Known about the structure:
The complex is a heterodimer of chains A (736) and B (133).
Chain A: H1 10-20, E1 26-32, E2 35-43, H2 51-69, H3 72-80, H4 86-96, E3 103-111, E4 117-125, H5 135-145, H6 148-163, E5 170-176, H7 177-181, H8 186-197, E6 204-209, H9 217-229, E7 233-239, H10 246-252, E8 256-259, H11 261-264, H12 271-286, E9 290-293, H13 299-308, E10 312-313, E11 322-323, E12 334-335, H14 377-390, H15 395-405, E13 414-421, E14 426-432, H16 437-441, E15 445-446, H17 450-458, E16 462-464, E17 485-494, E18 497-507, H18 514-545, E19 553-554, H19 555-572, E20 576-583, H20 586-612, E21 618-623, E22 626-632, H21 636-651, E23 667-674, H22 681-697, E24 702-706, E25 716-718
Parallel strand pairs in A: 4-5, 5-6, 6-7, 7-8, 8-9, 9-10, 11-12, 19-21, 23-24
Antiparallel strand pairs in A: 1-2, 3-4, 3-10, 13-14, 13-18, 14-15, 16-17, 17-18, 20-22, 20-23, 21-22, 24-25
Helix pairs in contact in A: 2-12, 3-5, 4-5, 6-8, 8-9, 14-15, 14-18, 15-18, 20-21
Chain B: H1 2-9, H2 15-21, H3 36-47, H4 51-64, E1 68-75, E2 78-85, H5 88-98, E3 106-108, H6 113-121
Antiparallel strand pairs in B: 1-2, 2-3
Helix pairs in contact in B: 1-2, 3-4
Amino acid sequence: MISMFPNLTDAERAAVRKHLGPGPLLVAPITDDDTILGLLLAWGPGVASKRRLVETLATLAGLAWRRLHAPTGAVRAAAKSSAIPTGELADAIAGLLSPGTIRAALQPVVRLRDRTVLGYEALCRFTPRAGLRTPDDLFAAVVITGQKLDVDAACLTAAFAAGTQTPPATLFVNVAVETLVEGTPAGDRLSRMAEIEGVAPEDVVLEVSERTPIGDLTRLRRVVAELRARGFRIAIDDAGAGHASMLVIAEVQPEFIKIDRQLIHGIDVSAARRALAVSLLSFGAHINARVIAEGIETDDELQTLLSLGVQFGQGWLLGRPVMVAPPQDASSVVAVMPDWFNQQRAASFRTVVLEVSPTHLDGRKPAVPEPTTKRSALPRALINAAAALQSEHDPAGILRVIADQLPSVVPVDAVYIYAADETHNRFLPVYATGSEAKARMAYGYSMDLGVNGWAFRTGIPQNVKDVSAHPATIAIPGTPVGEAESYLIIPLIVGDRRLGVLDCSRVGINRFTSRDLEAAALFGHTAAAAWRNAELYAELTERAILDPLTGLLNSRWLSEVGEREVSQSLRSGQSLAILLLDLDRFKQINDTGGHSAGDLVLRRVATVLTGMIRSGDAAVRLGGEEFLIVLRDTDTAGAERVAAEFRNRLAAVPLPRSCLPRRKLTASAGIALLPHNGSGLSELVRAADVAMYEAKRAGGDRHQLSTHRPNNRPSVRHSSKLTAAAAAPAAVPADV
Amino acid sequence: MLRLRNLRATSPFGFLTMLGGCAQSEGVSAVNLTTERGFQAVDKISRARDAQELVDAVLQGLISHGLRGSWGTLRGDEVVMAGVAVPDDDTARIEEILRVPLGSMRFQLAAYASFATAVRRRTLPSRTRSRIG
């Protein structure tokens, strides 16, 4: 800096240096698009590390300079210099107010990642007249002629009318701040206009733009709250340039921030513009607003925006404004057929109807609910959750407990739990709450995909502040596209066992704090341990009641559960049959083929049994070559049919070669029925056992119905296969 | 540099870091709108109603970030100082030494290499189109 003053004496140079401060001089050009306006000079402590700051301020200065001088200034200057007499201008504008003269073209607002159309911005169009060529000319002129409310109303009517042409999609409608804060209450006025044209306020985003700086922020806050109460959502238009002051953005707290096209233009070659876009993204995330880039015209700009994390955008590259039968000279509008809109790959920004109570009508946006857990309450909530989790031993039940207890630790709108199927490398949805529960439960996917796949691979709890913007995000069929959603993703891992993932979901961007993540991670540890314990408990329980050789139920199950089954059938008046089966001459197989052959045959018999019984029935290996089947809701004929079927299938079981010359397996069966042959399990088993031995004594390979009557001496009736010769009791042949 | 960093930032692990960290990481200082001084600077610039308010707002932005500076308007081949951001006492002392008001100083563009370079550096391609909204 000091070098700019070469004619100074050394003493003067030292004095100036002292007062100017140390450091090199940074020079940043201030430009209005392609015109150099001037230079911003900066120096001082640390200036070398603040080069980007200086460049950004210079860029902002250039954008603001443009806003101050054109095109509003040009029209105003033309009007003041009488290039266009004010009266002539007013007449021209009055002519535009006739119904249908101003019409709206619709430009797609798309998700940049896949160019899905999420909405349309309505842009007013008219046939040029009296020097009014563009909408900017018109809006500048109405400031002079005092017709701004009338023109805004005409533009709004045209926009709402155009919105009825599209499939369900969000309609972005421009509205001036002045229109909102002046005249009759804006909520009533806009609702009525939308209603007349047949557009639901919930589908409308009002793009608020300042044509002149707004002074009455209190009134603006009140109006915005009133509009939200009626279902409208708010966007700040021209952010970063124009008159969209940061104060208005902060006061309005819009759902959408639309970055001005001037800021997007050349963003691929301007580091300062990129820095500003990232700043607006960060700012948007803090106030829970989605950011839309306007005026994207080149692929380089698009790629740059994607790399910065901008999710949504519009511009000629993505879709030009379209209109069914455009007016004359509307060169920026593409004429389309009415069904054009139905051919677009479309989705919709989810309609978020804010819960606005009367207390919010003072102009404040409904506050984001604070986590229900204060710092001191968190340990208590975790202890209570742990107690509830530990008291549940059923693996299916534990999932419900996890979903029930989680909201006491972290505020959530929905909970999704996926089990990790390592064998097939897939996430299996096992529990879901919230409005998307059905769709979530219907869709499993590869563990290599999605934010869950990403978080699961890291093994670390993750706070995903905007799920739809995450590069790993995949679409879940049946869920809304483009919805702003925050996730806490908690991998559920116990030791080296990876159980799955727990997703905590909230609607909106950046809805979880780092403390929420910490609390959810702690809860996740407890939940994972409880889930694993429940699995182990189930495994142990299963092992205790299963026969290790055949996988059938064992006698322990029969004594613990079978009795209950019988009692339940007795209470409900349902019949129940017990088949006691004993393989004939099984000792022969062990003797000839060895015990390994015997075990193999027993496993094959078990396969036959499990393959023929119904899901409600039970097959039990009592020990050795003795089996028992519990048949629910089965009468005599049914039991005999099952016994005959078993013997048929048994005969087809292949025997090990070592068992030759034995050709086939046969069995003897005793059948006892509830309540005819007993009123308790042990009595029924005894009756079936007696009947089975009767079948053995008759030569085997047959079934026998028990004739035992409670408190009566057992009697025997032979099956259809039995002949009269078998009617007389006989000694059981050896090895039958 | 920023582009390289952002390419890396699009990986699953770096994305949120980039988003939350703005362009502040790795020594790059931009206007962070989430800080009070950054917010105030951008807000004042966007609310400026005339050229002088704009100059004042930009220079105030420099001061709030610990810098000093000046705005030089380009007039032909001269840079004319439209405003200076230096503490008042220092301004008085400098003007006393230089015997000329800081706000009215002019510099020949060609005489200062950094000025000429800054002007030449401005090479954005022209893709302007009339506003349509």
